[in-house]
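Retro notes - structure team

What went well: the batch runner handled both jobs without manual restarts.
What didn't: labels got mixed up in the shared folder, which is why I'm recording both outputs here explicitly, each with its sequence directly above its tokens.

Job 1
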Amino acid sequence: MTERIPWSEYLQKSIHYNSINSNKEPVRVMLSSVKNGVPMVQPIVFQSLLSTDQRVLIFTGATRNANLMSVVKSSNSTHVVAMEMPKTKETYIFTGRIYIVAAPALSYRFGTPPRRINIRSEMSAEEFWEDERIRVWQKISSEYRASFTWPEPGIPSVTEVGNGQGSWSVYNDTNTIKVPAVSSIDIGYKYKTLDAIKETSLHKSGSIVSSATSSPAMNAFGGKLSKNTNNSDMETIHNSALDNFCLLVFKVTDVDYTQRGMFPPNRIMFNSKNGNEWKQQNVNA
């Protein structure tokens, strides 16, 4: 029998009443950690609770974001995420462990998928998490998806935004993902939308293979494809963005929940031992 996770019931109601994710707009929250005594904070995008394990929150980010990857890997055990619910004036502060689920081609850099999480599937952990990564990729907005073709955050800009000429390229940067046999495509911030190409199978790298069943030119880049951008180039850009897209799997061990929409405010602490055997206690706000 599945264990009841009391805080997840609160969170699901909060997501509903605050219309979180209802319009596919990215819901950005702050991920915090400490490295060598120095606090580090990076925005990540909330997606959902994991359907097979209500202790687990799914966020997304970019593997080419060096600062984010540093925050994720800066602590061996503890990370903190704070979520604000604007309509109901609730605050959730989650403490736990975060794992990276990157494209299979990048597993040598980011490790294997998390295994101490209930997936209730005949699939292997690797198959389950890659399917989940692809599912979320197809669900997110085309605008958010396009951001995975953009330059690495935090580094100096080379050209004006939107120029796309002579700017940073996902294919040429030695610090990011490589796509074989591609060296002439330079996109910078050129694309503002990106549709997911329907898959028929997965490359060994984990990238989607086009089924060529979508509309002409796929409308993949919001009508911005040039006459020189053929289907092969389009597929390469899409696959590179997909390889840059990762899940951030947060296994929660403690929750500090405060409801400030009432007076006096209500505050509950949810604590567990390694995410199991949850206990809750009302405390002063």
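Job 2
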Amino acid sequence: METILGIKGFDFVILASDTMKAKSVMWLDEDKSKIHRLTNYSMMSAVGDGGDCLQFSDFILRNLDLYKVTNGYDLTVRGAVHFIRTNLSAYLRSNVKYMVALLVGGFDLTSGPELTFIDSLGNSVPIRYGGHGSGINFCTPIFEEFYNPQLDKRTAYSIIEKCVFEIQKRFVINLRNFDVFMINREGITKLDSINQQSFRAKVMANPSTRE
């Protein structure tokens, strides 16, 4: 039922995730962020089993903090991806298996923006756009139609808005709110959340778009 999305632009990466916490058919909370800060220039979003996401995310965050304290500097984005996928695949060979899928986005001062898809088996691949969860089924055609490697921040945010609108229109589960973060050369910036209120405000500000 959960959904996380990511898109890479010319000099930035945007990550978005719903904020719903649910158990089976029960809605528990609508303000649970699934996007976590790894370093000043990278973030990770995770979906899967609720307990697995919580424990595995906490394990990764604590170990990256320990790495910085020990060495005096943060892991690079690619280093963080390697650490995450190595541990996720290692747990598959033990008695502890984390059912977690992730997106890792960040900005490297030498190589630029990076967005990586990691599945629950520890496989990873760099991507331009994508996501995990049930909602991604409605978003892939939107990404394919509107994506451009040179797109700017406003256009990328608009594409994410289109994805969220399609999810809320067609998905039987009501994902009420999406957190949105951008990572670029300046670091991490929290963008305006996407929800019904933001869509109504947009329509009121642009009355000509009403049908």
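One thing worth noting from job 2: The chain has five helices and twelve strands.
We'll revisit the folder naming next retro.
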